[in-house]
Amino acid sequence: MYLSIILIPLISTVISGFCGRWLGRYGSSIFSSSFILLNLLISLFIFFEVNICGTSTILKLSPWLSSDLLITHWAFLFDSLTSTMLVVVNSISSLVHVYSIGYLDEDPHTPRFMSYLSIFTFFMLILVTADSVMQMFVGWEGVGIASYLLINFWFTRLPANQAALKAIITNRVGDFGLSLAILLSFLTFGSLDYLTIFSLSPLFELYKITFMNLTLNYFSVFGFFLFLGAIGKSAQLGLHVWLPDAMEGPTPVSALIHAATMVTAGIFLIIRFSPLLEFSPFTLMLLTLTGSLTAFFASLTGIFQSDIKKIIAYSTCSQLGYMMFSCGLSHYNLSLFHLANHAFFKALLFLAAGAVIHSISDEQDLRRMGALSPILPLTYSVFVIGSLALVGFPFLTGFYSKDLILEITQVFRNQNLFFFGTTACVFGNLAVIFTSFYSFRLLFFTFINSANSARHSYLVVSESNNFITLPLIILAFASVFVGYLSKDFFVGFGTPAWNNVIFSFPNHLYFIESEFIHPF
Fold it and tell me: Which of 56, 68, 183, 247 is 20 to 30 A from 96 in CA distance terms?
């Protein structure tokens, strides 16, 4: 079961890609979607066995590299963090596969597209199940290559070529930082395995490294390089420029990249390395400052966009900022909670936006839409649910994690713990205001405002087919209930799920204080 969850997307990729000529458009689509749905079912079994029954698993396959001290194996680690990410990745990927059947129903290259989607899922699963930094880097580079192929799917369009190149070149900067972190970990610990590195890390708290007559704390240098890798992949301020341009790919690509796979890889990396980052206050402050500034500036930029997909893209950038500064405040499980919640309502927003674009003759400009709510009542309804979950409307999925993040920042501000906690509080709350503004602006211009397009465009508008509407309905229910149902598992008092996975110093946790903060 554990090995099959890795192999199934690879088999789907090979058969859809190389046998698509004989399977046909619908044949390859149904085949790959069935395989990823099977993967989702297996990931639910793994989640039950690992998280509910408490039985973590390490699966060693074969030796990989052996050179003096460097000995690595092909091995897969299934702990509570991995099993949670498996459910998130496979659930969004399976819905995107089903959605793509209806969205690309007239595209002659659908088998190639399905093959790309499956290889993207495969590399993301390699990334989250790896038991060593080296194997994780294979998945890390793999999702970068797969994103290039997906963004550049319509390769005859010059903007798609440019966007794909910008994405892969920008990510090279972050990948360079991560590769230096890998070399540093081997230099210090003599190993690349997670379990070895994490168990030895307390012994190296005072370890120094000297470079060009500069003596620096080891964990600060390692954390900085790790931070570089994370901001490249998770599109934080400075290396965020590739994310809005990634909208040149088909809409299912946008949903998969933004909701559950590529951009969450950086946050996953930070959460996975919490046992090391806790020993580096410099890195935590860097994460807090960068995340809070990203949340603020991305939400501010979203106000001025007119492309329906770019607004949601900047929204993703802003929400990743929340996850980043939550890690900087040492609340890693809260960041993971927001990551899981965000995957569902952001996938809903992107797929609903795709349904609108698909219905109105591929128009993406807000200023040429309007009055669509009577014609597209289902799409309008799910768009409202996704937008309310995004802004943190009470008792929807986004509320449970986003509100708790803001409460934690409020505790830091009230207790004057450090300057960057106050910065996160101020910029996080400002980002909420701007997020609400552009979300309701998006709803108004798309569905409520008077019609601004030609009459003949509206005569052909209708609800999309069942392959498109079914994932929207499932994601709408997830955007309402997932946060409530999973809150106790992620951030409940006494939850044992993260005991051996996420490490935080006890004096860094303020969940109890957040329950008793004073109102303004």
Answer: 56
DSSP letter string, 376-394: -HHHHHHHHHHHHHHHT-T
Is 107 inside a domain boundary?
yes
Q: Which of 274, 279, 275 is nearest to 205 (CA)?
A: 279
What pTM did the predictor assign?
Answer: 0.93
pLDDT at 416: 55
The partner residues of 132 in beta bridges, in order of sequence, read 193
Residues 6+ away with beta carbon under 8 Å from 348: 382, 385, 386, 389, 472, 475, 476, 478, 479
Please write the tens of the pLDDT for every residue from 45-63: 999 999 888 888 888 888 8
Total count of domains within the chain = 1
- Placement of tokens 């460097």 in the chain: 70
Give me the phi and psi of 216, to 5 degrees please. -125, 150
User: What length does the chain have?
Assistant: 520
Specify if 322 maps to a domain.
yes
Q: Are strands 70-78 and 214-217 parallel, antiparallel or unpaired?
A: unpaired
Name the 3-class secondary structure at 369: coil
Token code pair at residue 377: 């009542």
State the residue range of the domain holding 409: 4-514
Beta-carbon contacts of 74 under 8 Å, excluding residues fewer than 6 positions away, are: 60, 61, 62, 63, 64, 135
As a whole number of angstroms, the longest Cα–Cα distance in the chain is: 72
- pLDDT the model gives residue 417: 56
Separation between Cα atoms, residue 78 and residue 395, nearest integer Å: 31
- Summarize pLDDT for 245-263 with one digit per residue, the tens: 888 888 888 888 877 778 8
For the packed helices 466-491 and 397-414, what is the interaxial angle rounded to 10 degrees?
40
Structure token pair of residue 83: 């099993």
For residue 154, what is the DSSP state? S
Higher-scoring residue by pLDDT: 21, 145: 145
- Is residue 519 in some structural domain? no
Lowest mean pLDDT among 69-83, 213-227, 246-260, 324-338: 246-260
Q: Is residue 520 part of a domain?
A: no
Mean pLDDT (the chain, rounded)? 87
User: 194 to each of 2, 79, 89, 275, how far by Cα in Å?
Assistant: 19, 12, 21, 10
Q: Which two tokens stand for residue 22?
A: 């004989």
Picking from 106, 93, 126, the residue whose alpha carbon sits closest to that of residue 25 is: 106
**Residue range 191-245, pLDDT digits in tens:** 888 988 998 888 887 788 877 777 788 888 999 999 999 998 887 888 888 888 8
User: 379 phi and psi, to 5 degrees?
Assistant: -60, -40
Kindly state the helix (H) or strand (E) to which residue 61 belongs, with its residue range: strand 57-67
Q: Which of 96-110, 120-134, 234-248, 496-510 has the highest mean pLDDT?
A: 120-134
Averaged pLDDT for residues 184-194: 87
CA–CA dist 125, 76 (Å, integer): 10
